[in-house]
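Data availability (excerpt). All sequences and predicted token strings are deposited with the supplementary files. A representative entry, Cell surface protein, is shown inline so that the format can be inspected without opening the archive.
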Amino acid sequence: MPITQNQGSTAGGQTVTVTGTDLGGATAVNFGTKPAAITGNTAGSVSVITPTGAGVVGVTVVTPGGVGGPEPFFYLPPPVILSVSPGSGPVAGGSTITISGRYLASATTVQFGGSTVTPTVVSDQELTVVSPTGAASTVALAVVTLGGTASTAFRFVDPPTATGFSPLSGLPAGGTLVGITGTNLLTTTGVTFGAVPATFAVLSDTEIAAMAPAHAPGTVTITVTTTGGNDAAPGTFLYLL
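Structure token line:
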């Protein structure tokens, strides 16, 4: 007497179907000691709305010919989101997002505002998902599981534009404080001088302060990377002889 979808929310309200033989005329379907509302019945199946519950309970079907079961039904607690990393991504989508929390193993979908994607379940504590496209804004990120739904915020960000920097040169030993200007810089995750990463601080959505790293004499390009993309500042930074 198998149950189609033998997991559900502790809050109940899920439609499930018990299949088998000689089920016609069922008078009751019980989840443990709680009766379920019967919504459909044939000789081969009984459809019901689950009652509230917790843990694992036995499902029994009462018919004029006797009692069938029990079959196990697993009540799942609602999911909990503890963190989303990164908490923002490009409007073009395609960013891999890690969602950490509890009770995530039965996740079926993740919603980014009005867009729905299918997650990869890593464990009961972790999901990964590839962000869809979206307009620059903050949207609700909702994880939908068989136990319920949990929501948090996710921000779609436009790609950055690096418009300039000052000073234009520094010593090969590094240590020059360089101010970088532009737009959409608030989610900056990295600044490089050539291929060398620099220590930086985000001052605002239009300004970054970066400490030039050590580098051989010559010119390099300064590139800013954010969760929305990356951009190279015009011109080059000169490491003096």
